[in-house]
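hiii so um. not sure if this is the right channel but i have a protein structure encoded as C-alpha cells and i wanna go backwards to a sequence. like what aa goes where. can anyone help
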C-alpha cells in the first residue's frame, strides 16, 4: 500500500500566498460590491515592454517556419541567452561568471526551491527570519528541517538569523555553523539591503566554514543606492562558496511568462571535491527540458538597449509607487522601512495587532490586501508587507483609504 510523503505532511497549513488568495476570494464573495486593491503577492501589473513583445512575435514566427522551427530547447539554456547574461548581468559589473555556469530555467521560484536537491540529506540550513517561504518549505519537503513548533513557529533543525528593527533588518552571521546559508538581497519581505562589506563577511564565513551560500538576487534591478552589491560575485572568494539565483519576473514583468536562471560556478566543490555545477547540470538534464525558445528570445530582448530602457521605465514606475506608500504611511504615523532599493514596504502593525489581525482589519476597513509578516517567519510577527507592483492609481487610492482607517 502506498504512503504519502511524511516530510510533506509536516508543512503547516497551505502555502502563504495560497492562504491569502483563499481569504481574499471568500471576502470578495461576501462583499461583491467592494473594489479590492491587491498589494499582497509581488505580482507585476505593467504589460510586457514593446521590445519584448516584438521578440516574442519574431520567435513565434520562427517556430512556424520549417527552416527555423525548434523542438526541445537545450536543457541548460540556449547559448544566445547564456552568453548575453554573462556579458550584460555579470561582466558589466566586473563579476567572473562563465556561460557554462549559467542555467536557464522557468523562474527563480523553481530554482530556489529545487536547488536544495543537490545537497546532502543531513545538511543544515540557515535562513533569515523573516524569509521568502519557499526556502524553508522545500527543505521541510526534503526532511532537513526537523519538527515544527506551533508555539514558536520555528523548525527544530533550522538555524535562524533574525532580521529585526534592532539590527536594521540585516542578518548577523549564524550562531551555529550551517551547511547551507540562504540570503536574499534586496530582501523579500523586508526590502532591506546588505552592503558589500557585510556580504563579504558572509562570503568569508562560508569559505572558512565550508558552507555554501544560496544568494537570491531576484530584486537586484531595484537597487538605486551605491555600495549595494547587485551580485554576490562582486565579493572576493564568492566563486568557491556561492550560488546565485536571478529572475526575469520582477525586472521585466515575466511573472506569467516564466524565466529565470541560476549561476553555479565551476569552482564550487563540496568537501570531497564534487562539483555542484555538474550535479545541478545532471539534475537539469534529468528533470527539465529547457525553458521555451520563444521565452528565452524574450529574455534576450530584456538585455537589448531598448529592452533595458523600457524595463527601467517600469522599475521607476514601481519605485514611484513605493515612495508613495512609504511617504503616505509615514505621514499617517506608521513605522515603515524598505521601499528604497526594493519594491516591498515593511510596516509595523499598529496597536500591537498581530500580522493576521492587521490583514483582516485592512481588508475589512480599507479593502486593501497585503501580506502578513508572520507568514515569512516568527520574527515577521507584528509586521506587514505591501508591494509597489500595483498601478499608481490603485496605490494612491490604497494609501488614501489606509489613512482614513
Ligand atoms: C512574493 O510576493 O513574495 C513573490 O511574488 C512570490 C514569488 O516571487 O514567488
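sure thing!! here u go:
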Amino acid at each position: 500500500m502506498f504512503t504519502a510523503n511524511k516530510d510533506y505532511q509536516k508543512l503547516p497549513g497551505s502555502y502563504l500566498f495560497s492562504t491569502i488568495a483563499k481569504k481574499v476570494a471568500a471576502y470578495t464573495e461576501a462583499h461583491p460590491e467592494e473594489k479590492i486593491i491587491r498589494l499582497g503577492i509581488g505580482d507585476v501589473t505593467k504589460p510586457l515592454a514593446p521590445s519584448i513583445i516584438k521578440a516574442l512575435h519574431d520567435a513565434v514566427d520562427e517556430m512556424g517556419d520549417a527552416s527555423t522551427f525548434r523542438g526541445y530547447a537545450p536543457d541548460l539554456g540556449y547559448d544566445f541567452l547564456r552568453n548575453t547574461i554573462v556579458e550584460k548581468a555579470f561582466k558589466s559589473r566586473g563579476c567572473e561568471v562563465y556561460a557554462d555556469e549559467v542555467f536557464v530555467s522557468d523562474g527563480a521560484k523553481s530554482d530556489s526551491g529545487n536547488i536544495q536537491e543537490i545537497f546532502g540529506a543531513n545538511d543544515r540550513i540557515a535562513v533569515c527570519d523573516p524569509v521568502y517561504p519557499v526556502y524553508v518549505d522545500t527543505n521541510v519537503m526534503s526532511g532537513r528541517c526537523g519538527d515544527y513548533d506551533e508555539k514558536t513557529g520555528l523548525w527544530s533543525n533550522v538555524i535562524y538569523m533574525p532580521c529585526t528593527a534592532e539590527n536594521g533588518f540585516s542578518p548577523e552571521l549564524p550562531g551555529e555553523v550551517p551547511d547551507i546559508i540562504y540570503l536574499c538581497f534586496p530582501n523579500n519581505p523586508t526590502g532591506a539591503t546588505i552592503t558589500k562589506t557585510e556580504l563579504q563577511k558572509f562570503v568569508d564565513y562560508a569559505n572558512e566554514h565550508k558552507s555554501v551560500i544560496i544568494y537570491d538576487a531576484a530584486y537586484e534591478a531595484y537597487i538605486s543606492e551605491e555600495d549595494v552589491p547587485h551580485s554576490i560575485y562582486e565579493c572576493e572568494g564568492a566563486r568557491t562558496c556561492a550560488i546565485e539565483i536571478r529572475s526575469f519576473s520582477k525586472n521585466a514583468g515575466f511573472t506569467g511568462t516564466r524565466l529565470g536562471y541560476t549561476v553555479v560556478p565551476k569552482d564550487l566543490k563540496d568537501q570531497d571535491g564534487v562539483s555542484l555545477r555538474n550535479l545541478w547540470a545532471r539534475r537539469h538534464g534529468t528533470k527539465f527540458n529547457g525553458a521555451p525558445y520563444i521565452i528565452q528570445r524574450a529574455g534576450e530582448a530584456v538585455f537589448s538597449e531598448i529592452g533595458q530602457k523600457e524595463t527601467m521605465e517600469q522599475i521607476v514606475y514601481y519605485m514611484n509607487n513605493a515612495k508613495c506608500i512609504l511617504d503616505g504611511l509615514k505621514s499617517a504615523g506608521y513605522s515603515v522601512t524598505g521601499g528604497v532599493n526594493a519594491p516591498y514596504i515593511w510596516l509595523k502593525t499598529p496597536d500591537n495587532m498581530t500580522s493576521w489581525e492587521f490583514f483582516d482589519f485592512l481588508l475589512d476597513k480599507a479593502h486593501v490586501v497585503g501580506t502578513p509578516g508572520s507568514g515569512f517567519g516568527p520574527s515577521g510577527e507584528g509586521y506587514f508587507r505591501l508591494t509597489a507592483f500595483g498601478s499608481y492609481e490603485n496605490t494612491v487610492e490604497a494609501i488614501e483609504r489606509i489613512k482614513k482607517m
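oh and The radius of gyration is 21 Å.
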